[in-house]
Amino acid sequence: MTTLERRTEGQLERRPDGQRRHRYSPVTWVRGGGLTNLVFLLPLLIVFGVFSWTPIVEAVVMSVQHTNLVTPATFVGVNNFVQVFKDPLFWTAVRNTGLFALLALIFGYPLPLILAVLMSEVRKAKGLFSALAYLPVVVPPVVAVLLWKFFYDASPTGVFNTVLHWVGIAPQPWIQNATSAMPSLVLEATWAAAGGTIIIYLAALTGVAPELYDAAEVDGSSIWQKIWHVTLPQLRGVLLVTLILQIIGTSQVFLEPFLFTNGGPANATVTILQLIYRYAFENSLGGNYGAATALSILLALFLAILSFVYFRITKSWSDN
Amino acid sequence: MTTGALTSELVADPGPERAAPPTATRQAKRGKSRSPEDSADRGIVSANDWRRPRIKWTWRVSHGILLVLLIIVGLGPLLWLAKSAITPTVDTLQNPMAIFPHGVDWSTLSNAWNKVGIGVQFMNTLWIAVGSWFLQLLVATTGGFALAILRPKYGKIINALVLSTLFVPAVVLLVPLYLTILHPPLINQSLINTYWAVWLPAGANAFNILLVTRFFNNLPREVFEAAKTDGAGPFRLFWSVVLPMSKPILGVISVFAIINAWKDYLWPFLVLRDPGVQPLSVRLPSLQQAIQLDVYLAALAISTLIPVVLFLIFQGMFLRSAGLGGAVKG
């Protein structure tokens, strides 16, 4: 298949059968490039071995153990999982995370598509449009959250409340009120993320074959009909992927609730990741690593099943 | 990072062509032949439609409105931050939307940099970014070279193991990785408060390996063959042939590495507890209550400067990588 492989295979074949077992001796292994291969793979093997593969296995092991770093870890079966389910905050966190993901879909899913379709028809200075749309994505997320936290100042002289005053709307409590806190978080998250999605859609839009539009016009399609019958079906693959990616991303939201409200007011913005963080790192009695890993495994399993089902369903659609 | 399959779907055909995605070629075409009649260069709206005044003006007006909205929403907050960074606290609090009602106060910037010590965190961030960048390039290029070009028999297994980590959400690693940093194997010393704690896990980036192996796989193997005939060993091949041919993909990885180092919060927050080694993103939230508002906003503005400037310089590369960026995020 590859010329390099063919060469080494050729060399092997030229050897008499009796000598082929020499291939397994260290000397022939080194001569055949085995050592070189390993030298090149070494950084990858060390870094992935220690900082990716082992921790993943450890996460599974720790979820059924009681670990306190002082005494040796003991096997406790499903105790950690039971403990997680019994935590009254668990269902609050699930509900809040679900709400965040849902609101993020409502605020942030159709908007980038509409903007991208509009922007794709820009004739002059298209780059300016994309650059402006992408600018919020470049702002470091922590800065974005801290900046918006100031914008969300609930006093009448807060930045957003001043702007609302111009158009005659009363000051809003934003993140200080249990009902409006979550939508405020989602608003910032959408601002920070929409640009990336717009750029993905713009790239996909340039990939739509112009002939399809030509053909649609021959059939007398209006612009709306072209968008509905040509553009959207052509973007279908990308749209489906960004949808599930967004759900996976938003169900792991941490930064916004942590820095804006730290879960408040009245636990209205506690998310699953925050709960994991609290179990492991905010426990005055020492980290409850078992519960933290158990919850993270639960979340990972949920997302895996969700994506699996999602792809099954969407695949059966495209088969029809 | 649950997103391996999804990722590869989005990145359907990454290869050397990555350097020039459809956008670029189409824009190039557009530059040469500007006439909207060119049907190969059309979008949803046809050339005929563009000639009809009603349609033309509907689009033009909506584009104008869109531009204004994008300026307000995309650029507005940053301009506000730039303005408020040099506005005295009282003015910002009493009338946040007024432009310099009582003049400009440049001293906030030097206060933030020197007195609050943002300069230290700035250099820390830079140092973290450079280290992660180097380690990611090292791991991705050597690993990619071994997997895609040397191709040992067991390479497929390693490749599968690397790619399978894309399906594991980062949160699963949080606690065990933290404990690994606390008690690393072999060396009997905690890596907490050292940059290795950030650099090393950053190196274990499966997405980089995916991009690099795909790119290397698409390089013409005749060139390697020729180099071998000329007596180049694998190290020479790696350094003098493969790396120079891989500049586009190395550029993409570099942009990601530096931007991610600037963006990362939770992980450095956990492992870098000492303010003296913390990057900007970790230090800023704790400054909030401790310092004057004008100096604080100046610190925020300073933290935003480098990524925004990098973006303005390497706009094309950013926007081309953005499609991938969306895919990595999950």
Structure commentary:
- The complex is a heterodimer of chains A (320) and B (330).
- Chain A is 73% helix and 1% strand.
- Chain A contains 15 helices and two strands.
- Chain A has helices at residues 3-14, 26-31, 34-62, 79-86, 88-108, 110-120, 126-138, 141-151, 159-166, 178-206, 210-218, 223-250, 255-261, 272-281, 289-319, and strands at residues 65-66, 74-75.
- In chain A, a hairpin with a 7-residue loop joins strand 1 and strand 2.
- Chain B is mostly helical.
- Chain B has a domain at 115-329: MetI-like fold.
- Chain B has helices at residues 4-10, 22-32, 47-51, 53-85, 89-94, 107-115, 118-150, 155-164, 170-182, 196-203, 206-217, 221-229, 234-245, 247-263, 266-271, 280-287, 293-313, 315-329.
- In chain B, helix 7 packs parallel to helix 10 and helix 12 packs antiparallel against helix 13 (234-245).
- Chain B is flat.
- The N and C termini of chain B lie close together (5 Å).
- Mean pLDDT of chain B is 82; it is low at 1-39 and 325-330.
- At the A-B interface, helix 1, helix 3, helix 6, helix 7 and helix 8 of A face helix 1, helix 2, helix 4, helix 7 and helix 8 of B.
Give the tags.
heterodimer, A: 320 residues, mainly alpha, MetI-like fold, globular, B: 330 residues, 18 helices, 0% strand, flat, disordered C terminus
Task: Describe the protein's topology.
The complex is a heterodimer of chains A (320) and B (330).
Chain A: H1 3-14, H2 26-31, H3 34-62, E1 65-66, E2 74-75, H4 79-86, H5 88-108, H6 110-120, H7 126-138, H8 141-151, H9 159-166, H10 178-206, H11 210-218, H12 223-250, H13 255-261, H14 272-281, H15 289-319
Antiparallel strand pairs in A: 1-2
Helix pairs in contact in A: 4-15, 5-10, 5-12, 6-10, 7-10, 8-13, 10-12, 10-13, 11-12, 14-15
Chain B: H1 4-10, H2 22-32, H3 47-51, H4 53-85, H5 89-94, H6 107-115, H7 118-150, H8 155-164, H9 170-182, H10 196-203, H11 206-217, H12 221-229, H13 234-245, H14 247-263, H15 266-271, H16 280-287, H17 293-313, H18 315-329
Helix pairs in contact in B: 4-17, 6-17, 7-10, 7-11, 7-13, 7-14, 12-13, 14-18, 16-17
